[in-house]
């Protein structure tokens, strides 16, 4: 078959089919790139969530420890204050009753 035997409409149809095949291939590649991008984004979001949860857990643990230490310090301070108050009161009692005057 020579070039003269080819119908111009058939040539145009073949060119159109080739172009459509190229567009389909490009769309497939774009779809794959978008899907890979979404997967990467989802992975980064998951990694960030895990990182934030881990750090938050660490902060909660430290805060709990600080609160426990604060309570224990407050109790010790209250106990020391009560003991000092009792010692001062006993000292004042001894002085006012004259038992320390020789």
Q: How are the SSEs placed, and which strands pair?
A:
Blueprint: H1 8-96
Can you put this structure into words, describing what you see?
This protein is an all-alpha fold and 102 residues long. It has one domain (16-96). 87% of the residues lie in helices and 0% in strands. It is built from 1 helix and no strands. It starts with 7 loop residues before the first helix and ends in a 6-residue tail after the last helix.
Structural key phrases:
102 residues, mainly alpha, rod-shaped
Summarize the structure.
This protein has 102 residues and is mainly alpha-helical.
C-alpha geometry: rod-shaped
Report how far the terminal alpha carbons are from each other: 142 Å
Count of all domains: 1
User: Helical amount among residues, as a percent range?
Assistant: over 70%
Summed over residues and divided by their number, the pLDDT gives a mean of: 85
SS content category: mainly alpha
Q: Total number of β-strand segments?
A: 0
Q: Radius of gyration from the CA trace?
A: 43 Å
β content, as a range?
A: under 5%
The number of distinct helices, counting runs of at least 4 residues, comes to 1
Characterize the largest beta sheet: strand count, sense, and whether it forms a barrel.
Answer: none
């Amino acid at each position: 078959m020579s070039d003269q035997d080819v119908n111009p409409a058939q040539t145009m149809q073949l060119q159109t089919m080739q172009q459509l095949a190229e567009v389909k291939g490009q769309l497939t590649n774009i779809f794959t790139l978008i899907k890979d991008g979404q997967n990467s984004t989802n992975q980064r979001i998951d990694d960030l969530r895990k990182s934030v949860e881990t750090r938050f857990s660490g902060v909660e643990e430290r805060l709990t420890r600080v609160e426990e230490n604060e309570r224990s310090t407050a109790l010790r301070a209250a106990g020391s204050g009560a003991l000092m108050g009792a010692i001062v009161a006993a000292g004042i009692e001894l002085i006012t009753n004259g038992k320390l005057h020789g």
